[in-house]
């Protein structure tokens, strides 16, 4: 008979649990989400001030401002944290609401590539602006 | 074999609290901010591309639909930020659990969400008032 409630057959519970992964990396996602969140708190406040400062978005002024080394570095870090944090959040949303297996898998892969692509695009754009230097005004 | 065990009762049995609204809004604003990240990407790419691309970007966000999107995005960002900070504070576990639970009053974490919502709305209004003042000052 069963050794524990819900058991079917004679298989030992340990045999069933083995291979399903250790209990050591379960909080990895949680920690990454918090770490990127902590980074994004000052970064997004700084970003709001930057955007406010750029209004009314005169092109040479925008290039000169975001091309400044400090601003450029912070924008690159912001893009990285933003897309990373966003991907972690989207992952949970897909896990929670998408129950069609093939669709879930497709979305999980697509959102990771999408986040990577978005972050890379931001970094490349910032490098292009930064390295082009401020046009003489 | 399908699982025939009874499911635990879900949303229907709980008394409504602001925490539920916060949780839903945190997800919705987070989802919306992911689209906002693409907006930031578009802006940076347009700036790197040249004046014509940048004008198109600015043109879109000067339109009514663009301004409306920006307004919702600004509040989404501020709500997600304020609520996220509350999440981080609560993650420390401070003031939770039986030792600090006063059975004669509702615990404070049932209602501090209203403060978070109020602050996010107030700062959003402040940001847009400052922006409008700045635009008018620039035009004059």
UniProtKB/TrEMBL annotation, chain A:
Transmembrane spans: 31-52, 72-93, 113-133
Keyword terms: Electron transport, Heme, Iron, Membrane, Metal-binding, Transmembrane, Transmembrane helix, Transport, Tricarboxylic acid cycle
Membrane topology: Multi-pass membrane protein
Domain of life assignment: Bacteria
Pfam families: Sdh_cyt
Entry coiled-coil feature ranges: none
Pathway assigned in UniProt: Carbohydrate metabolism; tricarboxylic acid cycle
Primary localisation category: membrane
Alphabetized NCBIfam families for the sequence: succ_dehyd_anc
Function, as annotated: Membrane-anchoring subunit of succinate dehydrogenase (SDH).
Protein name, UniProt field: Succinate dehydrogenase hydrophobic membrane anchor subunit
Encoding gene per record: sdhD
Automatic annotation (TrEMBL), chain B:
Membrane topology classification: Multi-pass membrane protein
Gene3D superfamilies named in the record: Fumarate reductase/succinate dehydrogenase, transmembrane subunit
Claim: Coiled coil is one of the keywords in the record: no
Alphabetically ordered keywords of this record: Heme, Iron, Membrane, Metal-binding, Transmembrane, Transmembrane helix
Annotated CDD domains: SQR_TypeC_SdhC
Presence of keyword Transmembrane helix: yes
Homology family: Belongs to the cytochrome b560 family.
Function: Membrane-anchoring subunit of succinate dehydrogenase (SDH).
NCBIfam families assigned: succ_dehyd_cytB
Subunit note: Part of an enzyme complex containing four subunits: a flavoprotein, an iron-sulfur protein, plus two membrane-anchoring proteins, SdhC and SdhD. The complex can form homotrimers.
Entry protein name: Succinate dehydrogenase cytochrome b556 subunit
Source organism of the structure: Aromatoleum anaerobium
Underlying gene: sdhC
């Amino acid at each position: 008979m069963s050794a524990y409630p819900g058991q079917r057959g004679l298989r030992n519970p340990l045999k069933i649990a083995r291979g399903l992964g250790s209990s050591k990396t379960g909080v990895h996602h949680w920690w990454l989400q918090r770490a990127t969140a902590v980074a994004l708190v000052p970064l997004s406040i700084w970003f709001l001030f930057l955007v406010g400062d750029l209004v009314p978005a005169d092109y040479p002024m925008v290039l000169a401002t975001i091309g400044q080394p400090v601003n450029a570095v912070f924008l690159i870090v912001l893009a990285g944290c933003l897309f990373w944090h966003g991907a972690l959040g989207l992952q949970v949303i897909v896990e929670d609401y998408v129950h069609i297996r093939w669709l879930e898998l497709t979305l999980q892969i697509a959102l990771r590539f999408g986040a990577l692509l978005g972050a890379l695009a931001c970094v490349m754009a910032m490098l292009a602006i930064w390295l082009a230097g401020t046009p003489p005004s | 074999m399908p699982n025939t065990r009874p499911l635990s009762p879900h949303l229907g049995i709980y008394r409504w609290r602001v925490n539920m609204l916060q949780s839903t809004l945190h997800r919705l604003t987070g989802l919306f901010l992911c689209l906002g990240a693409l907006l930031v990407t578009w802006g940076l790419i347009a700036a790197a591309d040249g004046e014509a691309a940048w004008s198109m970007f600015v043109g879109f966000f000067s339109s009514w639909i663009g301004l409306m999107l920006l307004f919702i995005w600004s509040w989404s960002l501020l709500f997600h930020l304020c609520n996220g900070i509350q999440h981080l504070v609560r993650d420390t576990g401070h003031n939770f659990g039986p030792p600090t639970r006063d059975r004669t009053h509702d615990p404070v974490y049932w209602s501090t969400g209203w403060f978070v919502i109020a602050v996010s709305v107030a700062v959003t209004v402040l940001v847009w008032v400052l922006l409008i003042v700045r635009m008018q000052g620039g035009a004059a």
